[in-house]
Amino acid sequence: MDTVVHRYFFWKIVEHYALKKQFRVLALYNTQVWLEDDTVKPRRVIRIVLSEVDWANRLKRDIGHAKQQFNTIYKQLGVWEIQGENVYVMSLPPVDSWEETMEPFTIGNRKGKIRNIALHTDTDTYNEITEQTLGNDGLPPFEALDSHEAMEQEILRIHENVKRTSVGRQTKERQTLFFGKPRVIYALLISILIMFSVLEANGGSTNIETLIDFGAKYNPLIVEGEWWRLFSAMFLHIGFFHLFMNGMALYFLGSAVEQLFGSIRFLVIYFMAGLFGSAVSFAFTDSLSAGASGALFGCFGALLYFGIKQPSLFFRTLGRSVIVLLIINFFLGFIVPGIDIGAHGGGLVGGFLAAAAVRMPKETRKTNVLWSLSALAGYIVLAASLLFFGYQSAAGTVNPDMAALEANRLFQQGNWEEARPLVAEGLEQDSEHVELLFLQAYLDMQDGKDKAAQEKLEFVTSENRHFHQAWFNLALIYWQQGEIEQAQHAVEEAIKQGEQDEHPDVEIDRYREVQEEIEQQQH
User: Fold this and answer.
1) Quick count: other Cβ atoms within 10 Å of Cβ 516?
2) Which of 319, 343, 501, 519 is most buried as measured by Cβ atoms within 10 A of its Cβ?
3) Which of 205, 293, 312, 433 is flagged as catalytic?
4) How far apart are CA 415 and CA 494, in angstroms?
5) What is the third-level CATH fold of 400-522?
6) Which CA distances in Å does 85 have to 26, 106, 125, 258?
7) d(CA 9, CA 88)
8) Can you give the residue ranges of every domain in the chain?
9) What's the 3-state SS for 458-488?
10) What pLDDT does residue 232 have?
11) Do the Cβ atoms of 23 and 36 come closer than 8 Å?
12) Looking at residues 316-327, what average pLDDT do you find?
């Protein structure tokens, strides 16, 4: 076989895989082409080499080099397993014994097998070997053209077409990955920072009353009609660490989603995911919560939708990182106390449904429209069901912690009578709840039931020695009953524990005033 025919054979094989079977071109050289079939599992990679190997040891070295390259590509593709072929197009086989060097080799997790194939000698032998080794690929019978000139022109045509197709595919992938520019994400991050500053300037971002005042997710008030809290909670964060972690994750994930979907679609996904996460939290979590975690996990959901629509591009670019981050965040949600896992899971589902509803840019097929409408309908039905379930749950059994939180809020507003049934219902659920017992003791004092209040406060201070408000109220009862020494001890504890409080309030001045009055009476 002469050189021109040899090269012509090589490029016709490349043409078949790259243009007719539409394999993706990984690398294109004059004598070597790497191709990938991203439509099958496991992923298939083919190396086609125009070879003039004379000796078996040279062939063996080349196979060793090919194995290293296959391993590199395996890592770059980001898939769990690949299979493939290392194909040598030879004019003549090596002159010495070479068949043993053509044994298959494994790569990666050792499940992926790469076959070594040698195509050589005359046309008849070539067709026979291709039928035996690559018969499922539909390679057509090979026939040389009448002249070298015609074959040279055909080689140039194939090379240009393969190159043009490869560049076109890469351009299309870049357009998919960078459809939009990250603009909205910066506006969202700025708004989150502004709201954090507002919280810090008005009592602190970890202060429960401040969080409630500025729109945290708080079930009792949502039930009363403040549904806007499902939305406003997305802009509040509890403490700097919470802000930092969510802000960093939003910056990277949000930027990726906005580039993939465009600014308008990203904004829709962000808020739909955040609201869905809040709805799940409202339905299944009684505790007060805030943060953009639902919207953040919505970005994960949108990226997973992208992974389903374009799995090859997803795993080559973002796939493994996204999946690893998702697993880590869910794991942290289960082991770190205080994390609203409901908002995380809800945001993930909501983000996926929202992405399916708005679709990726340039999704135009009718089937995609039907899926989009189905996703939107599913989102609406699920969200409405969650809100209904949450309303029924919040209006039903009283959670002692939430009863204490809401009753304390009403106490701060001076609405003691409104708080009274909440305290009673909470104590029915947990008769030794320290916060509720403290509030009930205060109500007992207002009703003139000092003895009952004293018993409750003594229990509270024995359970929680740091409860300075309980020590102070206990001091007042002792003082009123004429038990001066006990009153002195109690007020000293109130001052001591109050000074150690992370959020000391102006009540300590009142504690000292009472201490002075008790000391004057003692002397």
Assistant:
1) 11
2) 343
3) 293
4) 25
5) 1.25.40
6) 14, 11, 19, 38
7) 11
8) 3-170, 184-394, 400-522
9) HHHHHHCCCCHHHHHHHHHHHHHCCCHHHHH
10) 96
11) yes
12) 83
What letter does residue 100 receive in the DSSP assignment? Answer: G
Q: Is the pLDDT at 322 greater than 70, yes or no?
A: yes
* Buried b / exposed e along 205-215 (16+ C-beta atoms within 10 A): bbbbebbbebb
The verdict on whether 293 is a catalytic residue reads yes
The pLDDT of 122-145, averaged and rounded, is: 76
- The CATH-assigned architecture of domain 184-394 is Up-down Bundle (1.20)
Secondary structure element (H or E) that encloses residue 117, with its range: strand 112-119
Other CB atoms within 10 A of residue 194 CB: 11
Between CA 435 and CA 467 the distance in angstroms is: 9
Which alpha helices (H) appear in 262-365, and where do they start and end? 263-284, 293-309, 311-317, 319-335, 341-358
**Structure tokens of 44?**
């298939």
pLDDT in tens, 418-459: 888 878 888 888 888 888 888 888 888 888 888 888 888 888
**257-314 confidence digits (pLDDT tens):** 999 999 999 999 999 999 999 999 999 888 889 999 999 999 999 999 999 998 888 8
Q: What is the DSSP letter of 16?
A: I
For the question of residue 159 being annotated catalytic, the response is no
Distance CA(441)–CA(470), nearest Å, equals: 9
Q: Which of 16, 120, 242, 344 is the catalytic position?
A: 344
Radius of gyration of the chain (CA): 36
What whole-number distance in Å separates Cα of residue 507 and Cα of residue 455? 23
**CA distance linking residue 35 with residue 465, whole number of Å:** 71
